[in-house]
Amino acid sequence: MRVGYVVKRFPRYSETFVVTEVLAHEAAGWEVEVFSLRPPNDTHFQDLLARVRAPVRYVPESTRADGFWAALQDATEILPAAWSALPSARGELAEDVYQALLLAVEVRRRGLDHLHAHFGTVATTVARLASRLAGVPFTFTAHAKDIFHETVRPDDLRRKLDDAAAVVTVSEYNLSYLRRTYGRSARRVRRLYNGLDLERFPFREPRDRPARIVAVGRLVEKKGFAVLLDAAALLAARRVEFDVELIGTGELEQRLRQRVHDLGLEAWVRLLGPRPQAEMVRALAEACAFAAPSVIGSDGDREGLPTTLLEAMALGTPCVSTDVTGIPEVLRHGETGLLVPQNDPGALADALQRLLTDLPLRLELAHQARSKIEREFDTRVNSARLRRIIAEVHESATDHVAPHWADAGLPAVVEPIP
Length: 418
What we know:
Blueprint: E1 2-9, H1 16-27, E2 31-38, E3 56-58, H2 65-75, H3 82-85, H4 94-109, E4 114-118, H5 122-134, E5 138-142, H6 145-148, H7 154-163, E6 166-169, H8 172-182, E7 189-191, E8 212-216, H9 225-237, E9 243-247, H10 253-262, E10 269-273, H11 277-286, E11 289-292, H12 307-315, E12 319-322, H13 327-330, E13 338-340, H14 345-357, H15 359-376, H16 379-399
């Protein structure tokens, strides 16, 4: 199987799950090519990028009418179905259609069998159109912002759900929401957790660790870091021994720094900015507790299932998080971690204090959490499930009436574009 992965940006520091998934596919013998619709804009990247063999191609952007027209005419030389497929682009942005044309040409030139997109936003928009143009099926992974954010257009997402050969989403919560909201259009959606390479996250009991709380993520509203600072102020007032390391960058960085100052927390809280992944993993592994105080943002945005939460659980660091979306599926209160209501600094402070002071509780939660991760979040197992889903798509097309993407009138041999 030769698969094209379509993403908005690659690499992206906060999307380690994409790199982990690609590596697992490559280890299983699949040939993967990554198509990025935008250039990277992060300052730090995952260390495991060096292990990726897949070539990364950046799809050119253009909004010029003459460039669009030239691309369309050139595409018809290699995509006989281009003209007849154009009605499927009705309502889309010209720049997305342009990139879909270029991607479809690359699909045919490189003999790709399948397209898979991450996030049901622009990456899936382009993959859907390229699928129509090139005559290959597409699938996508729906996460959270692409489902819940106020900018999501239900008609657009419904069309993507209808046209995809299969869809996966990262939590049971998401699956239930999609089926409840989109009915029959969501009939091909399945739950598939993001996986971890467990060899990269070795378990160690949280015995002799400093009284440190670590939090990791983009500094945006849905991460709930403002609530963490309020909880830290309560712990400081109680004279609990602790410090907080907050790793990440984002639009709220200056506001959070100001909040640290206003609360007088300079002696307890450090905002470390972005860090290389190896350094971030080391910080997680050495912490006494991990905090993921996720909230539902004012714009409707929310977590799917934070990868850093899974990583901390794998490493043996006891976790506190909130009852948002799919988090309770993995963090069972009193079993695999501690769960508190969102936007509740008092409850968060109480839970963190328990982890900082109760060694038997830390050990019990850590062992149960690791077992949960091993059972349900091993990337070798979960990526194999995705490969089976994709393989079923192609077997279905062979055994039954061909769907739209298998009836593109394509030539048996396609010559490369000069």
